Amino acid sequence: MGCCTNSEMGLVALAHNKQVKLYDKKNLEKYYSYTSIYNALSRSGNLKPIGLKRLLSCEFSGLISHLSSNPKQKIDNFFNYFKEETHVPPKRPKSLNTGRK
User: Fold this and answer.
1) For residue 1, what are the CA distances in angstroms to 32, 39, 48, 92?
2) For residue 4, what are the contacts with CB-CB under 8 A and spacing of at least 6?
3) Where are the domains of the chain?
4) Do 47 and 14 meet the contact criterion of CB atoms below 8 Å apart?
């Protein structure tokens, strides 16, 4: 299955134990919705289903299944793990003002 990093289809394919090929250009300056997840999964050079399983089962990844028996604990683990990291604000923050009242 082939996709770009702005698509969740590759993650779904990995969850179904399928091979995935990314077609993004190398060293993208713009990160899309799932780019960071794909980058984490492809550190070894190719995407493998076991990588997604490891990421989803990690106690501090911040990705929490709706089937989790302890979602609150996983959220706390995520924030505790990264509490020493410096927050880098976005270069161009998006407005959350939708114009609705």
Assistant:
1) 19, 17, 12, 33
2) 22, 23, 24, 32
3) 2-59
4) yes
* 4 exposure class (CB count in 10 Å sphere: 0-12, 13-18, 19+): middle
- Is residue 24's pLDDT more than 70? yes
Tell me the CA distances in angstroms from 39 to 28, 42, 46, 49, one per residue in order. Answer: 11, 5, 10, 14
Strand partners, 84: none
Distance CA 62, CA 97 (A): 26
pLDDT at 82 over 80: yes
